[in-house]
Design goal:
The protein is α/β, with parallel strands linked by helices. The chain is built from two helices and eight strands. Helices cover about 15% and strands about 40% of the residues.
């Protein structure tokens, strides 16, 4: 058993794809035409980090209930966690690409961490490895 997908509600597909693929370095797994439950056109868009098994379904907001959750899917909390092997390189690359970091890098027992916003305004932790303990 594994978690296959999580959904992030976005305003529009193409800017969200650009952010996750070009800026964060995710792979575009699928971008297929689809239909809503009542027959209107939509797209099935899945991105995921390289070599990951869990992907993100980028779902364009549809209607009055979904529009307010764009950028606030977890009520202002950090709701997504991106772990990288080289924190400094990822932080530099993302900053150069215009990613907004709302909390600067710091060290925690579990590793380096900085909080950034995705294209919709959702909060993410960028997580790097913990420093090895010294004997």
């Amino acid at each position: 058993m594994h978690l296959e997908l999580v959904t992030i509600v976005v305003a529009e597909y193409d800017p969200a794809i650009d952010f996750f693929v070009r800026v964060l370095g995710f792979d575009l797994i699928e971008d297929s035409p689809s239909l809503t439950n009542d027959g209107r056109p939509k797209r099935w868009v899945v991105v995921r980090p390289p070599a990951a098994s869990t992907g993100i379904l980028l779902a364009r907001a549809d209607g009055d209930l979904q529009i307010p959750v764009i950028g606030n899917q977890v009520a202002g909390r950090v709701g997504f966690f991106l772990r990288v092997d080289d924190f400094d390189e990822a932080y530099r690359r993302m900053t150069a690409a215009g990613v907004e970091f709302v909390i600067r890098p710091r060290r925690e027992p579990y590793g380096r961490v900085a909080v950034f916003l995705d294209i919709s305004g959702n909060r993410w932790d960028l997580l790097g490895p913990a420093q090895p303990s010294t004997p």
